[in-house]
Amino acid sequence: MLLGVLELEDVSVSEAMVPRNELEGVDLNDDWDDIMQQITTSRHGRLVAYRDHLDQVEGMLHIRDIVLLMRDNTFDRTALRQALRPCIFVPESTPLRKQLLQFRRAKARSGLVVDEYGDIQGLITLQDILTHIVGDIGDENTPDEPPEIVEQQKNLYTVEGGIPLRQLNRELGLKLPLDGPNTLSGLIIETLGNFPEAGTELDFPGCRVRVLDFADGIVGSAEITCQPEESGEDD
Questions:
Q1: Does residue 24 fall inside a structural domain?
Q2: What is the Cα–Cα distance from 26 to 128, expressed in whole angstroms?
Q3: Number of folded domains that form the chain
């Protein structure tokens, strides 16, 4: 927790956000039945509302704002538009400490992360920042998910491709570079200069990484073999 607090100034929102490809939202141009299906089956309390594609965002839908309307059968397209809240936009380079203070001042809990061109890159929430400090708290209504790091045997781990490099460095004692991509998947792709195949191996300082599966432009999982530095002995 102390390390997480100390990193708040060095870590940007782009390293802690939910990336764009994992965002869940509501397309206001969809059929009403599809919209209702999306809202009623979502596990999230907030959904991005947009038209056709995410860059045409119109607001944030808070599920709690429409619960009574849905119960009274007065929820329709007009009510949906009226329930939307304005979006807060956050530059992707904003440090987590600064964003935490901004959330407090604005009494907000989420913001859309944008790059220098104004394109949406992901969603940062207050919970994401707290998770960086204390780890994944979880939710009693969220089904258990497999851990991001699984120890197979001594110095051998299976990890998710989307795991942040900072987390890998902290938990496995590695020294993976932090001046480029934020995730292991991004680091593998950037290092190769191309998309990997299952079985592709790469050497990094202190470890060897083997890709286990790759699909849709993302490394799904990988195997990391840590190679502890051997301490030499004087002759």
A1: yes
A2: 21
A3: 2
Tell me 12's DSSP state.
B
3-state secondary structure of 3: helix
Question: How many CA atoms are closer than 13 Å to the CA of 37, on its beta-carbon side?
Answer: 6
Q: Is 213 exposed, middle or buried (0-12, 13-18, 19+ CB in 10 A)?
A: middle
The CATH number linked to 169 is: 3.30.465.10
Angle at 93 between CA 91 and CA 94, to 5 degrees: 70
Query: Which of 145, 163, 183 is the endpoint of a domain?
Result: 145
- Mark whether 172 and 114 lie in a shared domain: no
Q: Whole-prediction pTM value?
A: 0.71
Could you read off the pLDDT of 115-164 as tens digits, one per residue?
A: 988 899 999 999 888 887 776 665 555 555 677 889 999 999 999 998 88
Q: Which two tokens stand for residue 196?
A: 């990997």
